[in-house]
Fold each of these.
Amino acid sequence: MTHRLLTIIWLGLVVLTIGCGVGAGTKARAPVAMAESAVVFPAELGSFSKADFELHVAQLRKRLPSKDFTIVVQPPFVVVGDEPAEVVKERADGTIKWAVDKLKQDYFAEDPKEILDIWLFKDARSYEKHTKLLFNDTPTTPYGYYSREEKALIMNIGTGGGTLVHEIVHPFIEANFPECPSWLNEGLGSLYEQCGEEDGRIHGFVNWRLPGLQKAINGKQVPAFKTLMAMDRDMFYGDRTGVNYAQSRYLCYYLQQKGLLVKFYKQFRAGYEKDPTGFHTLRAVLGESDMDQFKRKWEKYVLALAEEFRLTTQD
């Protein structure tokens, strides 16, 4: 069994209030500052042509706020970062390409319909400054977010790669399962906040969301799965969003550990019209007739989990 850990974990973080943010600002572009270093195109460009990427990169250059930024084409994305060029290239290949390949291996047949940008800002100062300068937005999360309006993933990469992999999930969900309810969209995304490779496939590990979920379970604050899965967007992202994220993540984690997650995703997507929340599909995949009883079993399972912080790559 091979373990390849990609994420850096924020030690001591146990609160559940941080999820993936949503940018809401109006558009405002920064002054032009050209960076003319050559862009290398990979051999495989996916569903887009070299001409598509060349046009996109030419337009993107006009928006660069300084010559500190490096552009890397990593289909279906164009990666832009203000760390040293070799670091940006390593992130594009070592994290982004790896995550895209592994997610497509298990879940996604289609790329996003348009080329998307991934902005990797080197630290909190750069992230906050350039989010305002480039997008006229103030982020609601210190880690990063996906903006549909800007067609971009906007990241403070200084916090690690976990949120980056999380946010990569969202445009692929949009392209492959646009009706996907919030609980699964965020459950799958947050599962891979701390992820690596096991037996050649992407695998989520226990992460910082666990202690808060265990506290919520002990406080009888975790809703029934039928309730969680029926939440609309406003309810899911409302006052209890931290618990909702964590419950969704650890339901996905449970399914993963039982070898059922990919099966559930594919059956739910195929049968969405008859089961728009996924509740009946979940019950069938689990082989459970009494979901209240299953929730008690799942809670016992979650309470027995230990938080594990793996900070180095293991081969």
Note: Confidence is low (pLDDT under 50) at residues 6-35, 309-315.
Amino acid sequence: MNNAAGKRKVLFITPDYMDYTSIILDGITEYANAETHLIPITGKKLRFVYRDGFHRFQNFFSKLILNKNRKKLFYDKVITERLELIFKEQGHFDDIFIIRPDLIKDHLHFIKKHGKRLIGYFWDSFSRIPEGKETIPWFTKFFSFERKDVKDHGLLFLPNFYPPDLTTDKNIQPQFDISYIASADDRLIILERILDSLSHHFELKTNINILATKTISPKNKNEKNITWFTDVLPRKETIRIMNDSKVLLDIAQPKQEGLSFRIFETLVLEKKIITTNPSVSTYDFYNPNNIFIWQNENTIPAKEFFTTPYSPVPDDVVKKYSLENWIQRIFE
């Protein structure tokens, strides 16, 4: 199935994860020596837009009486068209790699016919998204960053990675003591608790950046010195914010033990991190000098956590969590 240049043909099917989508796509091309094609399964072109209030009512009536969801019908139609076009133009693939296969579970039978191997990856837990485990039988191999799901369902464990675009300048003195970059969701409650508890013990200069797709009231915008923005930060700006801070903050999603990208990025940036995810203590790079696990208001880092230098992690350990190693594990 390899093309004339001797490269394997890979189809990458994924939700739109902003910069991470292109990072993974380029990584497959480079590290798996592949001719890579992309089908995004979320994004603006896949959003169902109501024409008016009556159109919204029609969809409600259709779901209630006719058991037909116009949103889902629209989504399935677009996905089907994208799949049919790529298979018509490209034929069969050596590998079809899918992140979040639960989003297109009704299409997996059709997709499987067009690839030698179907490879799945889940960087959510089945506790959060139980539909994911229903898709496992379709795959040649299925990876997860959640150890419990790996154990319970016989999957392959593979944590997240750090991207190759990370750069750090040790000659720059960080302006902030602690920084946080995330989307507006239920974690804001935990964020407030953490900032409150830290403020009672330290005078810290914070840089809190929250992506809010919905309108935020003026009252909330003024709380905790948060910078609110409505568009995704450019990747270079995100890296600049992280470099400009002594310590980064990581708040885990509920019902999830898999580690976020932020924790792996600190390995390259050599930044300390405060995280709410206790499972980080089971990893080979864990060092309490670099990583503080926040459990509640009674667990506060020592002052030295903010004043002492980062303890470097051995290069061979850091390398394990590179994008290159992540890609090679998936396509080996």
Note: The first strand starts at residue 8 and ends at 14.
Amino acid sequence: MNKWTLALAVAGIISTAAVVTAEEAENQALTAVSGTTISGCVDVSMNWQFGDLKTSNGRSLVNNANHQNGFNVDAVKIGIGKELEEDASVWSAGYQADLIFGDLANIYSAGRLSNNIALQNAYVDLRVPIGNGLDVRAGLFETIVGYESDDAYLNPNISRSYGYDLEPTHHGGALASYHFDLSDWILGVHAGIANTYTGNRSSDSARLAYLGALNLVFPESTGFLEGTEIYGGVVSGVDVDNRGYDAPNTANYYAGITLPLPVTGLRLGFSYDYRHEGSDNTWDGSWADAYAAYLALDVTEKLTLANRIEYANGKAGTWTFVANDWSKEDEYLSDTFTVSYKLWENVVTRAEFRWDHDLSGDHRMVDNASRANAFGITGNIIYVF
């Protein structure tokens, strides 16, 4: 585990158990390039909505209507790659290529090979030995904003948040990163360009998307706050997938903080997403924001409890597909409670209860716009290799 991954794990952005599971499963491949590893996962789930009606909102796998009231193959992931050397004083190169089969593949547009098959990542990493090491990533890679990962086993909950739905998924472009060591405070600076806001090229035009982020990791000298991370990022560009080649830019602004608490195994996190879609004489603009608070407790080495509380608000149609009165804004409150237990080696087993409430008064929580509340349970089994 490199020091940047360790910092994320300590802060709670990535669960320590998930990282340990992934590292336990990591397989060294016999190739011409030393350090090449093969990794991946098989992710299956079952969801059932109380009252049989499906919820009408959300891109997340178990909230989307196509993944409710039944069994799902969420993802089969196979990856091969090589990490950069730990020593920042040497010229170093690495790469990562991840192929996704299953429902998750359909959120990736640029890397989609066919229905339910897509490239999640396909990039080359290069390190220039300047100072602490200037890292450059080029190719297809996951977005730099957001609290939650597309890889479910890295998240504290099974279902995704409203904020996750606002964010871009991936970019084809280049990203430069540099980490400053400020008396053991680690400040990361990230800047890049990409074809579009998410995924595909912007036709034949020269329009590009712009990516930027800062993150600060607290040192050991801060006591129980060691590993706390503050993160802020922005992505701005044309959203070809959802709006078209000639649309005004879409921008996502993200801020998050994760911190350990002075209770062994207890972690707290907050995230905020704001998405703005520009307008002109042809295109209508829109806006949406989402707040989330995360609390996770490692009860034992095997048992983890996690809860997420959310508030989301935006232009009608941001998350909603059916409504009685489209003049009312989307407005939701949600609570998600997840129990994770590691009984088998390399396997993540989880159960989750989720409640969503429509605050608009328009009863938009189910697919016929007749209820203000939706309740669902989900089971999840993931084998990580």
Note: Confidence is low (pLDDT under 50) at residues 1-17.
